Amino acid sequence: MFRDRMEAGSLLAGKLKKFYDQNGLVLAVPRGGIPVAYVVAKELGFPLDIILTKKIGHPVNREYAIGAVSLTDHFVVPHEQVSEKYIGKEIKKIRKRLMEMQQGFLGGKKPEPVKGKTVIIIDDGIATGNTLLSTVHMLRKSNPAKIVVAAPVASSGAVKKLAAEADEVVVVLIPEAFYGVGAFYEDFHQVSDEEVMYYLDLFKNEIKRTA
Questions:
Q1: Most buried by CB count within 10 Å: which residue of 38, 52, 156, 179?
Q2: pTM listed for this prediction
């Protein structure tokens, strides 16, 4: 059980210190992954950015990811009952939301390049791993040196699934019984847009002070 996302980030950072001397980049899954990623990026001395991708949900079950969309690319696993028209509509809708997130969180700043870097994707927990799996597939197209998926807690099924596609999966806690990410935090409040901006600004100011 973690006290909050900050404590979880500190424990996760300890497991990620082996990447300290690499050309790395921390990509946070908004919103819950931001506080965790902030701690990790600060500990490792890596740049911090947001992974601007969102899943494409199946039309019958929106929680089931059949692909992912970024501002410039997309990845889709073909499904018989999913039409090209639906995919096209979802990509357009998701990109609009991602552009809003980029403007709101990053002020229109272009995402950090990932080519040739050890990219550490961080969330506050992983239940099924489907969304992150699609994100990993899409990031591969940008030719990072290594893709590491990291989280304080994850289900064993998600770890197994992601380990088959990512170069490494780093998790602090893999419980035998998984009842949802929030069950492993004393404080698991919903992270607001304002909180995301707070951590991004805090990180940016700290970088300026140490530069």
A1: 38
A2: 0.87
